[in-house]
Amino acid sequence: MVDDVRLPAPTSPSRVSLFITCFNDTMFPQTGRAVVTVLERLGVAVDFPLEQTCCGQMHFNTGYADETIPLVRRFAEVFADAEVVVSPSASCVAMVRDYYPRVAELSGDAGLAREVQALRPRVLELSELLLDRLGVEDVGAYFPRRVTYHPTCHGLRMLEVGDRPLRLLRAVRGIDLVELPEAEQCCGFGGTFAIKNADTSIAMVSDKVRTILDTGAEVCAAADNSCLMHIGGALSRQRAGVRTMHLAEILARTKEDAAA
Amino acid sequence: MSEHRSGRVLPFPEAARAALADTQLRHNLGHATHAIRAKRAAVVSEVPDWEELREAGRALKERVLRHLGQHLVQLEASVTRAGGVVHWARDAEECNRIIGDLVAAHGADEVVKAKSLTTEETGLNEALADRGIRAWETDLAQLIIQLSDDSPSHILVPAIHKNREQIRALFVRTLEDAPADLSDDPRELAETARLHLRKLFLGARVGISGVNFAVADTGTVSVVESEGNARMCTTLPEVLISVMGIEKVIPTWEDLEVYLQLLPRSSTAERMNPYTSLWTGVTDGDGPRAFHLVLVDNGRIEVLADEIGREALYCIRCSACLNVCPVYERTGGHAYGSTYPGPIGAILTPMLSGMSEAGSLPYASSLCGACYEVCPVKINIPQVLVHLRHREVQASTQARGVRERLSPEHAAMHGMARVFASRRLYEAAQKAGRVAQRPLVRDGNIRRLPGPLGGWTAARDLPPVPPQSFRDWWRERS
Fold first, then answer.
1. ipTM of this model?
2. B290 phi and psi, to 5 degrees?
3. End-to-end alpha carbon distance in chain B
4. Looking at the partner chain, which of A67, A157, A190 has a beta carbon nearest the beta carbon of B417?
5. Which end of chain B is more exposed for a tag (fewer CB within 10 A), N or C?
6. Which element (helix H / strand E) includes A225?
7. pLDDT tens across B386-399, in order?
8. Chain B interface, best mutation among A2, A20, A195, by max B CB count within 10 A
9. DSSP string for chain A
10. What pLDDT digit, counting tens, does each position of A203-245 carry?
11. How confident is the model over B300-353, as pLDDT tens digits?
12. Are B463 and A29 within 8 A, CB to CB?
């Protein structure tokens, strides 16, 4: 954490801008559709600026900070007028909130630094928006499955979302939520770490898979699809019979979906 | 990186591969790190003002480093006033020469050592051996490392990768006094080591120690430990040489209060460490008759010049970051090929010894942040790791020029940055991805990727890019 981010006072925004992230846009569109479903169900209008692309997290975390500068500039322009920006990715929100000031500093552009400072408190992870701004714990979801929840590292330690996702899950009707042993252990994704240090990453995800299987859950949920793609990739390779789902997708499910 | 004693340093991913396959190592480390983690969490939770202590510990170090020169000069004056002699060493070579000269001047061909990572960093034992001086490590774990001709794999528990059966066999093989029927009972093992060490302590004329804290205004030097062997080292020989990195200075005696609370709970998960030795210069009729303090730079001033990286110098060597690190837990310390392993080593080593020596270390982390969470002086290790990755990319671009720009990673990062800079290119790339993946998709999954990406599919499937992006869906509905 660069420094404390003071979240705005809990006034319900009438309109939120969705930052889907390049990764979800391309690989996990169902997560974006689920976010729209949940927010519209709660009476919130969703706006999706089509000029958005990528927050630059992968570039920045891999050491390509210079290449990140134009992406930060783009993000700041695209969302300049947004009242609140919501994203279903804890790590991308952490990038904006914790590291954008550093990138702006590297750019030497004082104007960008000001824009970033003004924007970052308005960028929220989905569970933060639901609980802190909309004041909703029960989003009217129904999901009769055994689910375990993996708190992803950036949500846990950078955003410090705490038990917000768990509170949302506990309010889901029909859910059988089981605690994940050693939940706070990293799954070993770490962006390019999973490729640059593939062997160590595999050793880490093997232990994560073991603890997930120990719960007997059918679904492993999290608030970040990058970690879920990693965990899910290992579960799939092992034909473990357990699937991964983004928190938003569980929150979007209703009795009608179950019947369909 | 691995086996720095063999001369050749392996990049971390390669060294890690070998370590990951060592089942004994994995078992020993998994057991040890999990045990210490739980104990640390328990003793830290007892302290109601732990967060304030961490803030204080960090703030003090920040202040010390801002006026480092001033504090060191004051320390020199205080130590001199108390009858000690201060030596300044620019680098490892100078440090080793100063110590070698001191030992030789006292006519000793043998020294006893304890609790010094800095002399591990400078390679003092090897340098002394070249001058015909035998250095005996007396910290139990260090002794085990030395007897097995190994290198430490943990800052605080250097032999964490060995279990007691391995230690029993080692003692029987290397220690003359070890009984042939020695068991692997820890008490018997400790007794065997004790008998061996007592003889060394009583015979040695020169002792060498590390330094945890040096108080500038009194000239007091402090070593904290569990065994009492360092106290033997610092009190029995006629001559004591203490070696410290220049960042170990603290302004006043009162400042010890903060660190003596933070350090034991973070390192050994104890409320207080069993032995805290503090001495000021020399005292007639008590302890060594000559005291030398060697202040070592060895790259630290350059670290200080790095505005983001300098916080690595706040480190008080507690090793809490190693114990919670999911990478260290699985690879152990040798894979880092450095005196300082684990998360702190991954930031300190490349800055002290240069990116070309240790350029793979800043990447030896998933950036999970567990290290930052436990650090008693709040070093933002993930932020420094990312900063050093940036320095590494800049350095290799500068050194390799066009060749670096053409490397698969650099080309990919650059290409993607251009794609993300334009909505048109980005949307075109999404479509292109769906087409390009076709030969790779089998039964709805990608099970094998080419080139460097093959590391992913070595043990993980990859879902294919679905037919409709989110933005396509959004446009369709509105």
1. 0.95
2. -135, 135
3. 54
4. A67
5. C
6. helix A225-237
7. 999 999 999 888 88
8. A195
9. --SPPPPPPS---SEEEE---HHHHHH-HHHHHHHHHHHHHTT-EEE--TT-----HHHHHHT-HHHHHHHHHHHHHHTTT-S-EEES-HHHHHIIIIIHHHHHHHHT-HHHHHHHHHHGGGEEEHHHIIIIIS--S----B--SEEEE---HIIIIII--TTHHHHHHHTSBT-EEEPPTTTTS--S-TTTHHHHTHHHHHHHHHHHHHHHHHHT-SEEEES-HHHHHHHHHHHHHTT-S-EEEEHHHHHH--HHHHH-
10. 999 999 999 999 999 999 999 999 999 999 999 999 999 999 9
11. 999 999 999 999 999 999 999 999 999 999 999 999 999 999 999 999 999 998
12. no
Distances (CA, A) of B368 to A197, A200, B172: 14, 14, 42
Q: Which are the contacts of A136, defined by CB distance < 8 A and separation ≥ 6?
A: A42, A130
Mean pLDDT across B414-440: 96
d(CA A112, CA A109): 5
Structure token pair of residue B270: 């104890």
Q: Out of B330, B373, B453, name the one closest to residue A204 (CB).
A: B330
* Helices B23-45, B256-267: inter-axial angle, 10-degree rounding: 140
β-strand pairing of B445-446 with B441-442? antiparallel
Note the pLDDT tens digit of each residue in A17-71: 999 999 999 999 999 999 999 999 999 999 999 999 999 999 999 999 999 999 9
Tokens of residue B50, six digits:
């732990």
User: How many other C-beta atoms lie within 10 A of the C-beta of residue B82?
Assistant: 17
Decide if B211 contacts B223 (C-beta within 8 A). yes
Angle between helices A65-78 and A110-119 (to 10 degrees): 60
Which range, of A186-190, B341-345, B403-407, averages the lowest pLDDT? B403-407
Alpha-helix residue ranges (DSSP H) falling in B236-369: 256-267, 300-304, 320-324, 326-331, 342-353, 355-358
- Is any Cβ of chain A less than 8 angstroms from the Cβ of B460? yes
Cβ contact (<8 Å) for B456 and A33? no
CA atoms within 13 A on the CB side of B281: 17
Find where tokens 């002290």 sit.
B352
Q: In whole angstroms, how large is the CA radius of gyration of chain B?
A: 26
Round to whole Å and give the CA distance between B215 and B154: 26
Look at A29 and B417 and tell me if their CB atoms are within 8 Å: no
Q: Residue A4, class by beta-carbon neighbours within 10 Å (0-12 exposed, 13-18 middle, 19+ buried)?
A: exposed
Contact present, B119 and B125 (Cβ < 8 Å)? yes
Q: What is the pTM of this model?
A: 0.95
Q: Which of A92, A200, A238 to mutate to test the interface with B (most CBs of B within 10 A)?
A: A200
